Amino acid sequence: MDNWDFLDEDFKKEVFEDNFTVIIIYDIISNKRRTQLSKLLSAFGFRIQKSAFKCLLTREKYKLLIEKIDRYAKPPDLIRVYRLNQNVVTQIYGEKLENENEIYYFF
Predict the structure, then answer these.
(1) Domains of the chain (ranges plus CATH)?
(2) For residue range 41-52, what is the model confidence (pLDDT) as tens digits?
């Protein structure tokens, strides 16, 4: 966070500690439930692979997403949610998506 020294401490805490990146990957057999989950995840973030989404969420939105995701997984389906901290470095090889380089500001 050294590059962000110009920001006041309260703003840095809000942006860097109260928000985090979440990666959701899934393997769902039912076309209907898979489509519904995809639509839900699109409301929270953006698709990075065919069955993977990336979201930048507040704690409240993260809790809401987890509550909603639970209803889509039925045996033998699989949904994985990875909550990442700000120290994670992303390296992308191949074609980048348009919104991969977006910088998020919360006011």
Answers:
(1) 13-86 (3.30.70.240)
(2) 999 999 999 999
* E-state strands within the chain: 19-27, 46-49, 52-58, 78-84
DSSP string, 70-97: GGG--TT-EEEEEEE-TT------SPPP
Contact 82, 22 (CB under 8 A): yes
Backbone angles phi, psi at 90, to 5 degrees: -105, 130
- 61 by Cβ neighbours in 10 Å (0-12 / 13-18 / 19+) ranks as middle
- Kindly give, in sequence order, each residue whose CB lies less than 8 Å from that of residue 17, ignoring residues fewer than 6 positions away: none
Pairs from 84-93 (Cβ < 8 Å, separation ≥ 24): 84/20, 84/21, 84/22, 84/23, 85/20, 86/1, 86/16, 86/20, 88/21
77 annotated among ligand-binding-site residues = no
> pTM for this one?
0.74
Query: In this structure, which amino acid lies at residue 77?
Result: D
